[in-house]
């Protein structure tokens, strides 16, 4: 049986690859479960400082949920569909959103439905100029269920998100950049080098400081500004006694790079 998720660790970066090319890397239950397990392992691996998440092949990052498998759950009733499909997908995107190492989506092709929701949830994203995005769940007579009704409006604004959610129309990587869904659009052959370059520019800094920023943003984003500032202060308090901060301040005074 083909492994649904591949993971290669090199130069402190884990490249995690969705591996169902014959199904355009559709998110079946086995793939989601395996991806969650890989993320758990990578998060605690000292050899890994950042993650690049991409899809196998030239056609798709992920075409979204495996509709055939999802349909079987729906046929068993709402409770089964919620348990097996909705909660599983929401666990995945929540895990990505709160991850304590930077996750960079390298969107190499179609990012429809759940594939788009993964892109919304990760901390950073770079898209190939061959990528294509869509929120097509409306065509199935359902809303997005992996967080797309919540994260896309927060990224793009209510009205711009609703246009995509209510029409199901595909949109270009340039539009995704404009909406704040991705950080950059690059020529297809430059996608992985660009993702690795971004990872390198992050992991040169303190591991603990990177984690504190990710945590402060993820926790504070959906709170009031006052509550978010408390989160920010809490994360600073965690860094204040560390050797990383002492060395960072000393390096600034001595005009050198931190150790």
Fill in the keyword field for this structure.
single chain; 259 residues; alpha/beta; 2-enoyl-CoA Hydratase, Chain A, domain 1; 2 domains; three-stranded parallel β-sheet; 51% helix; globular
Give a short summary of the structure.
This protein is an alpha/beta fold and 259 residues long.
Distance between the termini: 45 Å
What is the strand arrangement across the widest sheet? 1-2-3-5-7-9
The structure class reads: alpha/beta
CATH H level, superfamily name of the largest domain: 2-enoyl-CoA Hydratase, Chain A, domain 1
* Envelope shape: globular
**Number of helical elements:** 11
Number of domains: 2
Biggest sheet overview: 6 strands, mixed
CATH architecture of the largest domain: Alpha-Beta Complex
Mean pLDDT across residues: 96
Helix proportion = 40-55%
| SSE sequence, one letter per element | EEHEEHHEEHEEHHHEHHHH
CATH topology of the largest domain: 2-enoyl-CoA Hydratase, Chain A, domain 1
CATH class category label of the largest domain: Alpha Beta
| Beta fraction | 15-25%
Poorly predicted segments: none
Radius of gyration: 19 Å
- The total of beta strands comes to 9
